[in-house]
Amino acid sequence: MSFDEIYLSIAGNMLENIQSKDWITSHIDVEYYGEDALEMGGGFKTKDNLFTSFKFRKFDRRIINDFHRLHQMTIENNFSKWNRAKFTLEPTGKFNMEFEWDQALFDEIERLNNE
């Protein structure tokens, strides 16, 4: 699977869960804890500036696999490592993918793993 295919899969999953025709932006925030754990948040904003959070239990499970696969591919291709990501989607189909390394998050995960 290519990066573009993963991005299309994420966007498709988001579109299936946007409950408004008047949305202007949507995003998913990811905290990556390891190969077997990640946390997601996000939602969409309407033209009336109302924000609705996604109910991830309604998402297809592939969204989790997509972010795990994306993490694995970025590591394999020597892109910068990340433990936070944000995928932003607009109704036009334009999207943005941001990756971030949060040392404090990494330190907390390491501390909990060593307890």
Automatic annotation (TrEMBL):
InterPro entries referenced in this protein's UniProt entry, alphabetically: YezG-like_sf (IPR036170)
Source organism, top-level taxon: Bacteria
Name this protein carries in UniProt: DUF600 domain-containing protein
